[in-house]
Every structure is written in C-alpha cells, then in structure tokens.
Amino acid sequence: MIHPSAEVQTNHIGEGTMVWQYTIILAGARIGKNCNINFNVFIENKVKIGDNVTIKSGVQIWDGVSIEDNVFIGPNVTFTNDLVPRSKQYDTVFQDTKICKGASIGANSTIIAGNTIGEYAFVGAGSVVTRSIAPYHFYFGNPARHKGYITKDGILLNMDFKDKQGVLHKIKELGND
After folding, report:
1. CA-wise closest residue to 130 among 149, 143, 120
2. Residue 62 and residue 176: Cα distance in Å, rounded?
3. Structural domains of the chain sorted by starting position, each given as residue range(s) with its CATH number in brackets
4. What is the pLDDT of residues 153-171, one digit of tens each?
C-alpha cells in the first residue's frame, strides 16, 4: 500500500510494504518485503532496506545507508553520510553506514556516517553513535557508550549478562556460555 500523498519514484519495493503519508522515496532506493515506512520519511537513491523493517516518522535515510532485515528505526532518527559537510560542495563518495539484522535504534538518535550497528544491537533513545557497535550490545548516551547487552528476544542485560531480576543469560554468539 502506498498512500496517495507519498512520492515513490522507485520500482523496487517488496510485496506487503506500506508507505505512509508525505513520504518521498527516490528512484534508486531498494526496499524489501513487509516493511512499514511511516509518514514524513525521506529515502535517498543509494539506500538498501531489507525485509520486515519498521521506519518510524521523521527519518531521513541518505545515500550510503543500508538496513538489513527485521530492523527497527525509531522516530526522528538521524543518519549522516558526510563527515565534513559544506554548503554547495558535494562528495561523490559517501561514507557507508550499515544497520545489521535485528538491530533497534531508539527515537531521536543520531548515527554518524561510516559506522556499523551489529546484529540485534540496541541503541537507546537520544543517543549519538560515533563508533561501530558490536552485535548484541546495548549502547546509549551522548556519545553512546557500552552499557550492557541484549538478547535476540530483546531482554536488556547489564555488563555481567544479568537481567533486571538478576538472572544470568547466555548469548552464544558472544561466547559467554
């Protein structure tokens, strides 16, 4: 479903994807199946979005950003693609930013160009990500810092891999078992 007020120039949108009001998607963008792209989103040409991705309102996704399957992008998340922007001076090559499978980025976070957010990683709301984040890691703050871990099922853990009830969790992918 594409809302009539959306301007969608690409032919590469997967089945079951919903595009809401006042969204603009440029011709070169590639978007997977069963995505939910909320209102007032802008997606540039050299953007790849996987399947089952949720992009909340007010997000702009610039050239060089790739988002894998099952990712959540919260409202007003900001991506950058130019580390030294100047008015009327345009780079021909932009920094690549990768958001890996299952990751979640909280509302109003800023992701600085050239970083990778690992599989199932979690970025807390309002964070500024200035470095890459490893899989299953929980980061928040300005600048975002490592504060714990997160399971594939979304259970937040402290630095000792314990949840808020004190139960120890094993994350096989991190080798703490």
Report:
1. 143
2. 36
3. 1-82 (2.160.10.10), 121-177 (no CATH)
4. 999 999 999 999 999 999 9
